[in-house]
Each structure stands twice: as structure tokens, then as C-alpha cells.
Design brief:
Elements (H helix, E strand, L loop, with lengths): L2 H19 L2 H8 L1 H20 L4 H12 L3 H8 L1 H31 L5 H29 L1 H20 L6 H19 L2 H6 L4 H20 L2 H10 L4 H19 L11
Helix pairs in contact: 1-7, 5-6, 6-7, 6-9, 6-11, 6-12, 6-13, 7-8, 7-9, 8-9, 8-13
Length: 269
């Protein structure tokens, strides 16, 4: 997962640089195009890298079996309904955390809480750097205490702390640093082990579709609507309710995670 936080750090630093160096008129006129131009070039690089990478040996051994499956999406529901429910349960909270801290909270802080845009991007950049640094120790911690306990702490702590943290989203770099750093640091408990947790839910021949379909559906429903929900609530002066919405999602994720087996020493099926 180190590529994702690195990309997020570059994006937040770019946002900080643009807001610090360009005026509002310059940002509106041409500055907003700069991230898209850089992203387009990096996207082409990503396509080239993906085409040159080799699949795992296990994938190659099961490729023919996977192609022979009929109605694989139905098979995941019929034979692995528990895995589907578990994936949706904890992915819902993971998605809400991601879109809240890395997307929705930035415009919310500026537009609805009158925070300075430069301070917001600086706080996000520092928190994202922390996000990168914590991936490896949090992954190592899960090898010691287990993946399930780590996810339970993440979901429980998010349920308890997300609403108090939201009160710190207001003008002042110190307040923003605490809100972003604590929330994102908690999130690393999930992201540091997410690929392993998801991969262990389904057998190899169903893994790509089982994770891809249900994870992306969850992301679309809960993550894609997060910025819209937070702005809609803000228009009615109910912005605090969004963070209660995340807290409820964290409670649901907690009970979904409780049904997971502990797999820290197990081999993939």
C-alpha cells in the first residue's frame, strides 16, 4: 500500500504549493489544470508498468480454472456470502475514512469551517507523510498481535473518536494537524494489512472478481457519495451529522470484523 499514500502525499503537497503560490484568480483561470496534466502523464506511466508486470505463480496455476467459471459473481454470493458481507462491512468504513480525510474534509474545512486553504493542505501533507511512515510498523504489529485485533481497535477507536476529532476542523494549523494526523494514523491500522485481509476472503479463482466487484461497489456507494453527503448536510447546518454517520459505519465494521477468522499465520487458499 506504499504507492497509494505516496501518491496522496504528492497530491496534497501539490495542492499546498498551488494555493501558496497562485492567487485565487490564477487558480480559477489555469492552476486547476496543472494536477490533471501531471496525473495524465503518471497515468500513462502506470499503464506501461501494469503491462510489464508478471502475475503470481498461484494466479497462473488457477487461471484456466477461473476462466471456466460460469456466473462467478453469483458464485461469490451463493458459496461465499459471509466473505461478501465481511468485505462490504469493513470496506464501508475504510472507504468512508479514505474519502473523508483525503477528499471531503479539505473543501469542508475551507468552505464550511472557514479554515485557511494553505493550512488545510499543509496539515494534510504532514498527516499523509505520517500515513506513509506508519504503514510498515503497523503491518509488523499485525504479525505480532494478529490482524483481527488490529482491525477491531481501528474500528472501535474510529467510532469513539471521529466526532470529537470533527470539532477540531476549524481555523488554526494546530487544530487541523490533530484532526488529520489522529484520524489518518488510525486508518493505517487498516491500510497496512488491507491487501492481505481482502485476499484471504476468497479462493484464488474468485479473488479478483470477488474483491473487485464487491469492494468497488462499496466504494461507489459509500465513498463516491461522501463529499455529496457532507455538503448536503452542511447546507442545512447539520454537518456534524456526517461524522455520526461515520461513527455508525465504524460500529457496523466492528461487528463485521468480529466474524473474521485470525489468519496472520495462514497460507492463501
Amino acid at each position: 500500500m506504499d504507492d497509494l499514500p505516496s501518491a496522496l502525499l504528492v497530491a496534497s503537497l501539490l495542492g499546498y504549493a498551488l494555493t501558496a503560490l497562485l492567487t485565487e484568480d490564477q487558480l480559477t483561470d489555469y492552476g486547476w489544470r496543472i494536477p490533471f496534466l501531471i496525473g495524465g502523464v503518471l497515468g500513462l506511466l502506470g499503464i506501461w508498468l501494469r503491462r510489464t508486470l508478471d502475475e503470481t505463480e498461484q494466479f497462473g496455476d488457477n487461471q484456466a480454472r477461473a476462466r471456466a467459471l460460469k456466473n462467478p459473481l453469483w458464485i461469490t454470493l451463493r458459496y461465499h456470502p459471509k466473505a461478501v458481507g465481511q468485505l462490504v462491512g469493513f470496506s464501508m468504513l475504510s472507504t468512508l475514512c479514505y474519502y473523508t480525510f483525503f477528499s471531503a474534509l479539505t473543501p469542508f474545512a475551507v468552505k464550511n469551517r472557514d479554515a485557511d486553504a494553505t493550512d488545510v493542505f499543509l496539515a494534510l501533507s504532514i498527516a499523509t507523510a505520517l500515513f506513509i511512515v506508519l504503514q510498515y510498523p503497523m503491518g509488523a504489529l499485525s504479525d505480532r498481535i494478529g490482524r483481527k485485533p488490529q482491525l477491531l481497535v481501528w474500528s472501535a477507536a474510529t467510532a469513539i473518536l471521529i466526532v470529537p476529532l470533527s470539532t477540531l476542523v476549524r481555523p488554526g494549523l494546530g487544530n487541523l494537524l490533530v484532526a488529520f494526523c489522529v484520524g489518518i494514523a488510525l486508518y493505517t491500522a487498516m491500510t497496512s494489512i488491507a491487501p492481505a485481509i481482502m485476499s484471504e476472503l476468497f479462493p484464488t479463482e474468485l479473488r479478483g472478481l470477488g474483491i473487485g466487484a464487491w469492494y468497488n461497489l462499496t466504494v461507489a456507494i459509500f465513498g463516491g457519495t461522501a463529499p455529496l453527503v457532507i455538503q448536503a448536510l452542511a447546507r442545512y447546518d447539520l454537518s456534524a451529522m456526517f461524522f455520526w454517520y461515520i461513527a455508525i459505519g465504524a460500529v457496523i465494521a466492528f461487528f463485521a470484523i468480529r466474524t473474521l477468522p485470525e489468519t496472520k499465520a495462514a497460507e492463501l487458499r
